[in-house]
Design a protein that fits this description.
The structure is a homodimer of 200-residue chains. With 200 residues, chain A is of the alpha+beta class. The first copy, chain A, is built from nine helices and four strands; from the N terminus they run E-H-E-H-H-H-H-H-H-H-E-E-H. Chain A is globular.
Chain lengths: 200, 200
């Protein structure tokens, strides 16, 4: 089984569907998954690829699609969730600190739960501190670490690494050099991890 | 079983995956499908939503994604296919004439086969006349009908109808007022046609 890298940014709407189900899917399917937070907005700006800005019809579709698919997965959801986020950078810096320390997945799930189920913008208070606390950490300590320059540099480096792999959106799965973009490509990513092809 | 409207534009790349498999899927699943050609580009321009222009990373991903998914569906494919098309308007006018006369599905499949398997741009010669002939029709007669003002007006009217339903991309499935965008939403559209929900 080839490892799967799950590249995501808190701030991405469709990533809600992946964040909330990936843990259970990985356990059920015996997957080797690494969560890799990055700053998708930096790549989108650089590539002139902002998905929903000034596109109200597409944005309205996105919310309805997420609502239907959340029901399909058995996930509660309140749409539209607050969007776009002011705190994308800090939300993902905290996720990166959490990945280094081992509580990043829990924090990410708690953040998305508050954002998509309770209407609390990710990366702003009270979501930020409450999600850190729910992951068993001290918010004051974690936010200080997240705001440190070294964490900003580390997130930028991760973002550049993702861009180098061909990541341009969130969620993205990278499996043995192949890029699969979108929650709706998780099945393809799993098939690739098992067989190195989709028509096996 | 709620009827499914399949809205598509010849010129859309991902529509290859749907055009080539929808007939077999519809027969196997007992679906009631109506094919509705329209001019997606007119809507995209109006909505400031051109998907791949000036986005080389996203475009390269799109071709690789189509290549992998074509293999998954057992479809031959040569990527990148010629893109974008100069003849999108005429290609879809012919499709509309064909739908009125009963050979439009066959023409659409033949057009995509030549475009995606043999590198012949859809809507240009020799693809245009060869696909009409392969659908059992006289190219001279059909092209004259397609170029008539009434056909242009009919395609514009179909496009406006689609836009009114919330269609903004191709392929799109409309099922009982719900919009499902993308070849990767065909399963959701079928589920909705059967049950009016995805979590049934």
């Amino acid at each position: 089984m080839t490892p799967i890298e799950f590249w995501y940014s808190i701030g991405s709407t469709y990533s809600y569907l992946t964040v909330m189900r990936l843990g259970a899917v990985a356990r059920a399917e015996g997957l080797d998954v690494t969560w890799r937070p990055f700053n998708v907005r930096a790549i989108m700006v650089a590539q002139n690829n902002i998905p929903f800005r000034d596109k109200p019809v597409k944005a309205a579709y996105m919310w309805r699609d997420i609502e239907r698919r959340a029901a399909k997965y058995g996930l509660p959801v309140q749409v539209p969730a607050p969007y776009p986020l002011a705190g994308l950078e800090i939300a993902n810096r905290v996720a990166l600190v959490g990945m280094e320390e081992g509580w990043g997945v829990s924090y990410t799930v708690e953040t998305y739960r508050r954002w998509f189920q309770h209407g609390q913008p990710a990366g702003s208070e009270p979501n930020l501190s409450e999600s850190v606390a729910a992951a068993g950490q001290d918010p004051e300590r974690v936010l200080e670490a997240a705001m440190a320059d070294r964490t900003g540099a580390a997130l930028a480096k991760e973002t550049a690494t993702g861009e180098g792999l061909g990541v341009f959106g969130s969620p993205t799965f990278v499996v043995g050099g192949e890029v699969f973009w979108g929650d709706d490509r998780l099945d393809d990513a799993i098939a690739w991890a098992r067989a190195g092809r989709l028509d096996a």
